[in-house]
Design a protein that fits this description.
alpha/beta; 5-stranded parallel β-sheet; 9 strands; 33% helix; 8% strand
């Protein structure tokens, strides 16, 4: 395991994203992309030089046409099941469909989730949910309260276990992304934003990360076994796309060291995921390694990000909006299209046995 990883920032949670926005108010920021298609929030450019032109939105990539076995399980005749956490649900892409009756909720199941555009909309069961861990595949998940200050009367309820919701659907393909919340990935990145010293220099954070990573592979192995046993269809395990390009300078409040720190963390997380897939005895489980670099050149600190960037504008929006807070450092609609494109390319090079 690399020696620059971190996790577990519960002791900093009280500071919140508002504190991050205040801290960032005096910092340089990277320009953010224009609004993704269907997104509920945007991160506008905050370049302090009025004479500089506002960067144009990054072009939305179109996935190549599926071929071979993937063509056979997609399209109007295919049925897609999406399982796991926010990176499976499509957090950040907008057009969220309610997981519970009565309106919006914290699952943020998007119409633009990975691989969704390869299927007829009526043949997709997006059962993933933001904040989900490996345990929520087999156990119910309590949803987050949109306004924590509203008091206990605001109870958004729970969603059933994802594999319980899957019963009777009979997918031809399953897409799965899970594990990041077991590691408290979102909390780690928030610590990097809030700390006045680099989070990579915090020995408690580093030690906690090592502990979390040491148990993650076992949890993933159990989760994959449960999913693979529940369906005969191919189960494509997606790694987390690298959110940061190789840094060449500061990015808002994220220093060069902290950006590399985030890259190391994602690499370690994906290494645990790959190892768990490789050690699985399931014959229908596959690791889609191509997705790791789906956002290359369009990371959170790039001029044309495919990620909801943690610059000043993005953090100020996150301070005022539950939705924007959840979307922070998640792919945009363009980002998920890029992930789908890499999935299609991977499938063309990896025939099913």
């Amino acid at each position: 395991m690399k020696n620059r990883t971190c996790a577990g920032v519960r002791r900093r949670a009280a500071t919140g994203i508002v504190g991050a926005a205040i801290l960032l108010s005096g910092c340089s920021t990277a320009p953010a992309a224009g609004p993704p298609s269907g997104s509920t929030t945007t991160a506008a450019s905050t370049d302090p030089t009025p004479s500089d032109p506002t960067p144009s939105p990054a072009p939305t990539p179109e996935p190549p046409r599926p071929s071979g076995w993937l063509a056979e399980v997609t399209g109007d005749a295919g049925r897609l099941a999406i399982l796991g956490d926010s990176f499976a649900a499509g957090e950040g892409a907008g057009d969220y469909q309610p997981a519970v009756s009565g309106g919006g909720d914290s699952c943020h199941r998007s119409l633009h989730a990975p691989a969704a555009e390869l299927f007829a909309p009526q043949n997709i069961a997006n059962l993933a949910c933001s904040r989900a861990t490996t345990g929520h595949l087999t156990a119910q998940q309590r949803l987050a309260v949109p306004d924590p200050g509203a008091g206990p009367a605001t109870d958004p309820g729970t969603v059933p276990a994802q594999l319980e919701q899957l019963q009777g659907f009979e997918p031809t393909l399953v897409v799965l992304s899970v594990g990041g919340n077991n590691l408290d990935f979102a909390g780690i990145l928030q610590a990097c934003l809030l700390e006045t010293t680099p989070c990579s220099d915090d020995p408690q954070l580093v030690a906690h990360a090592a502990e979390q990573l040491s148990t993650l592979e076992t949890n993933l192995t159990d989760a994959y076994s449960n999913v693979a046993a529940a369906v005969p269809a191919p189960v494509l395990v997606l790694p987390y796309p690298q959110l940061f390009d190789e840094p060449d300078g500061g990015c808002g409040r994220l220093s060069t060291e902290e950006q590399r720190f985030g890259r190391d963390l994602i690499d370690d997380l994906n290494a645990a995921i790959r190892s768990a897939v490789d050690s699985s005895a399931a014959s229908n489980l596959y690791y889609v390694d191509a997705v790791e670099q789906a956002l290359a050149g369009h990371g959170a600190c790039s001029p044309e990000p495919f990620v909801h960037a943690a610059d000043l504008s993005g953090l100020l929006q996150a301070a005022d909006s539950f939705t924007a807070n959840q979307e922070l450092l998640h792919p945009t609609d363009a980002g998920y299209r890029a992930m789908t494109a890499e999935l299609v390319r991977w499938a063309a090079e990896h025939p099913m046995p």
